Amino acid sequence: xxxxxxxxxxxxxxxxxxxxxxxxxxxxxxxxxxxxxxxxxxxxxxxxxxxxxxxxxxxxxxxxxxxxxxxxxxxxxxxxxxxxxxxxxxxxxxxxxxxxxxxxxxxxxxxxxxxxxxxxxxxxxxxxxxxxxxxxxxxxxxxxxxxxxxxxxxxxxxxxxxxxxxxxxxxxxxxxxxxxxxxxxxxxxxxxxxxxxxxxxxxxxxxxxxxxxxxxxxxxxxxxxxxxxxxxxxxxxxxxxxxxxxxxxxxxxxxxxxxxxxxxxxxxxxxxxxxxxxxxxxxxxxxxxxxxxxxxxxxxxxxxxx
Length: 306
Known about the structure:
Blueprint: H1 18-38, E1 45-47, H2 50-60, E2 71-79, E3 82-90, E4 100-104, H3 110-124, H4 134-151, E5 169-177, H5 183-195, E6 199-203, E7 208-215, H6 216-227, E8 234-243, E9 259-261, E10 270-271, E11 276-277, H7 279-288, H8 294-299
Parallel strand pairs: 6-9
Antiparallel strand pairs: 1-2, 2-3, 3-4, 5-7, 5-8, 6-7, 10-11
Helix pairs in contact: 1-2, 3-4
Protein name: RWD domain-containing protein 2A
InterPro entries: Phi-like, Prp3_C, RWD_dom, RWDD2A-B_C, UBQ-conjugating_enzyme/RWD
Pfam families: Prp3_C, RWD
């Protein structure tokens, strides 16, 4: 069964033989089975690509030898005084290594979310190496998550969570990724950009391109979070900064009015089963936003519309 994400191999998995990786994948699947029984609702536990579960089972049982993509899913939790959403990315060698876990809430301030994730990471480090830890992370959130709504001011709406601190620089980051297919990553990128009051775009596919612009500290905080996720390859290709004064409106420096995911609505044509986009359309979009110059930074050649 073909997955939306290309098969990738964790570097640590390369040092393990197939039977060892199969054993680790079996443990992952047993934990997911347990979590699905705990959260049976259609929006409680959401697997990014359900076909990956089938592929992992086939791999664990020896029906295929090609290592499938990593498993990614989101668990949506109701806790006292609020809701939490935990994004999970399981490396192939989990539980021998820690997973990537990130928690957010539409009604928590950025400070509260940061503290919550730091405290959760500290808790995960207390779990014995090699033990399954997503279940214990859920238990910790159910027990402790509500306190973060009590200890920090609660936002009245999602837009309030992007209240900016004083910053005398405007920045625009141009990010390049080997590919962006994961629906969970794409949603998290959108959510984080709104959380940090950033405008720009995300172009999914192969390659994946992201532009974020706003207060420089907000772009740095966004980039710090995004690059910590599991990627085959991701880097900042270009960084633009300009000093701003107190009497200048930030919107005057923005090239994009919102943050959006590009696709057919922007007349970006997709080919080869959704893996590749028409680069001429991408260049045209950049030109429309006075950013055509960055095409050469990404691809080493001057672009032209088609």
